[in-house]
Amino acid sequence: MGTVITERVYGDNAEAVTEKILNRMHEIEDNLSINIRTSSISQMNSGSKGSIYSEEVIKILETAKRYSALSNGAFDVTIGPLVKEWGVFTEHPRVPAKQRIDELLGLVDYKSIDINKKENTAKLTKAGQLVDLGGIAKGYAADEAVNVCIQNDVKSAYINLGGNVSVLGSKPDGSPWKIGLQNPRGLEGEYIGILNIANKTVVTSGDYERYFVKDGIRYHHIIDPKTGYPSKSDLISSTIVTDKSIEADALSTATFVLGLEKSKRLISGLQGVEAVFVTKDKKVYVTDNLKKYFTFKDESGEYTYVEKG
Ligand code: AMP
Ligand code: MG
Questions:
Q1: pLDDT tens, position by position, 237-249
Q2: Residues 6+ apart with CB under 8 A from 250
Q3: In the chain, domain spans
Q4: What's the pLDDT tens digit per position in 91-134?
């Protein structure tokens, strides 16, 4: 998944469990990665019609479609052709010609992922379409890491998969885990606040995570499926706090694209989903139910915590 995993697992069998988690992570990667030729997703992307996939793949594709519909297409895993064209993850990222972007936009349409749940088959209906699970796979993997812990009677664990954090229980001393929220314009590890949580997941999408600069313009890795360009909403980071990391991952990407007002509305309609939004003008918004778990602690002095609103 092109990322680093940090595991803190407590208990008598902790060491063995960390190994099991790593094995499970490799399994998931082999199944989902677009960089592994034999993965189910690569198979689907190469135009294979009606192949049978594991329940895991079908479940993730269904979840992806559900959040695409919920976000009115702001989240869309068929964004693949555009991610590839921009090449933000390659050594030679580039700004594609507008005409090329418009051409590829015709391939972005989550509705054309054709899933047959009974048979466990799935296919892409338009030639040239590509699924890219980059916006949801880490969340799924984090959930699975937590599941490995639960299955092995672990009561306390912290999993960080490239910024997707999931915690099981509280810290071994009974106090909540403290999760720092990255300052989107600071150095890595510089925070603007702390979340004190137990049994939750915290997932952030931001324009600082992956980008390149060309002619003084920052081009980041989250594409607005409506324009084909890196999303230009008023948010520079969007953090979701909830129970399932796969949901948090899809929603963090979706809300980042949607922008502050639409995202506030979307989140307020979802049970048990909370958020921290940081806007371009460096204002920090926290949903009401999350406020008591959030400590505003901006080391840079540049951000304003908007406590009401
Ligand atoms: P995240 O860091 O979870 O917000 O996911 C960003 C990654 O998801 C990108 O690196 C792309 O691989 C993919 N992606 C980019 N834009 C979108 C989008 N609008 N919907 C779904 N996935 C996307
Ligand atoms: Mg995401």
A1: 999 999 999 999 9
A2: 63, 64, 67, 71, 75, 135, 136, 139
A3: 33-135, 176-306
A4: 899 999 999 999 999 999 999 999 999 999 999 999 999 999 99
- Ligand 1 pocket test, candidate residues 86, 132, 227, most atoms within 8 A of CB: 132
**Is the CB of residue 135 below 6 angstroms from any atom belonging to ligand 1?**
yes
Which are the contacts of 90, defined by CB distance < 8 A and separation ≥ 6?
none
Q: According to CATH, what is the number of the domain 33-135?
A: 1.10.3980.10
Q: Is any ligand 1 atom within 6 A of the Cβ of residue 142?
A: no
For residue 13, the one-letter residue type is N
Q: Is the CB of 221 under 6 A from ligand 1?
A: yes
Least confident range from 165-179, 181-195, 206-220, 253-267: namely 206-220
Domain 176-306 has CATH 3.30.460.10: no
Q: 61: number of CA atoms within 13 Å, CB side? A: 27
Pocket test for ligand 1, best of 223, 231, 233 (most atoms within 8 A of CB): 223
Q: Do domains 33-135 and 176-306 have the same CATH topology?
A: no
Q: Which amino acid residue places its CA nearest to atom 11 of ligand 1?
A: 134
Q: Name the phi and psi angles at 207, rounded to 5.
A: -80, -5
Atom of ligand 1 nearest to the CA of 64: 21
Is the minimum distance from the CB of 220 to ligand 1 under 6 angstroms?
Answer: no
Question: Taking a C-beta distance cutoff of 8 angstroms, is the pair 233, 258 a contact?
Answer: yes
pLDDT, residue 142, reads 97
Q: How far is the CA of 250 from the centre of ligand 1 (A)?
A: 8
Separation between Cα atoms, residue 278 and residue 183, nearest integer Å:
9
pTM: 0.97
pLDDT at 251 over 70: yes
| Confidence tier at 27 by pLDDT (50, 70, 90) | very high
Q: Is 252 in the pocket of ligand 1 (CB under 6 A)?
A: yes
Residue 309 has pLDDT above 70, yes or no: no
Cα of 133 vs centre of ligand 2, distance in Å, is 9
